Amino acid sequence: MRAQSNLPAQSAERQQSVTAARLLAAAGELMTERNSIDISLSELAKKSGINAALVKYHFGSKDGLLMALLARDSRSEIENLDYLMRQPISPTEKLKLHIAGIIKAYHRFPYLNRLIHRMLYESSDKSAKEVSRFFAKPVFEIQRKLLEQGVEAGEFRKVDPMMFYISLIGACDHLFHGRTAMSPTLGGGVTDEVRRRYVAHMTELICGGILKASPAKNGKTAK
Amino acid sequence: MRAQSNLPAQSAERQQSVTAARLLAAAGELMTERNSIDISLSELAKKSGINAALVKYHFGSKDGLLMALLARDSRSEIENLDYLMRQPISPTEKLKLHIAGIIKAYHRFPYLNRLIHRMLYESSDKSAKEVSRFFAKPVFEIQRKLLEQGVEAGEFRKVDPMMFYISLIGACDHLFHGRTAMSPTLGGGVTDEVRRRYVAHMTELICGGILKASPAKNGKTAK
What we know:
By secondary structure, the first copy, chain A, is mostly helical. Chain A has helices spanning about 10-15, 20-35, 40-50, 50-60, 60-85, 90-110, 110-120, 125-150, 160-175, 190-210.
């Protein structure tokens, strides 16, 4: 019952064949199993049992495959976010669920973070623009509206949406980025327990900061 | 008048010759000019006017040069941080200066961020351990003590120091990382103005969060 968001290129993407969808599913599984986005088209053909020529036909190159996978997963996340924003809950509640949602998305698609980094920082300008179109811009726009709603509702102070986007995405991303994720200080990587603690930490930090809350901010009335 | 911090390997590093120091200075300048950390040892020899054999002698490989540069700049930043922590100011004031300091360090050494990413995520485990020893661990330890002081002083609520480290470094890092820095939404990259706005944003966000401060939190007394 989720309304379709109006992402550009969505209708074209939706028409991709069942074969392409199966290939993407296999690619996602392979990346998760391997804990790496470095998979070849021939490995994918082997994993999926689908002819290598068809892999080539559907995605052209490895970058084409990565971009298609990113588009699929971004679309699913943006739809979730869109759905969340239409719920009859306060901006503060939406923000909390959004923070948890970003961290869950990175957890659900362990390769998403690496894919975004690869496409944004190591690929062509064209790839970077695509990532921006699929992922960064829609997330930024939704956050911008949420921040406006929060201010209008008298719940949020006014913040610069671009600064907010960079700080929130940067902080969430960093837990999963590269060797941070394997850091021995985290005691064995980003476990479910670490992820839950990070959701709690980020929610409290973004909502209330580190300074000790006054009684009024805790929802009690100061005498 | 700054006391020397007890960083491991510091004494050995301190003994490096004047030639090595000149080479590092030239490497930093070259990276800043180029806006890239991709410089070769022969380009460095040309820029510095120092014989290529000496470049090889002092740093062995390009990774050796990058690590030496990272060690030099990390040391300087850790010394600043160490100095800051010994000032007779409140934990809240220290935290604010620390946030501004991280962002300023990335600005002052535009290649620092890229160096850390390269060494942490694309190099060997050995490089990652070195970066951790030079940069991540000392910063984490200083933050941990600051957080303790803040709680003892009744200024901070209790936060997990590892979660805090990841979120603060991740958020500050993200402004300068890869194409974020060139994003057209930032209107021409990370200018002095953008940097100042980000310092203000991060300070407010980390200290007080986004929820509208109660009168008591603003330092006024609620009636």
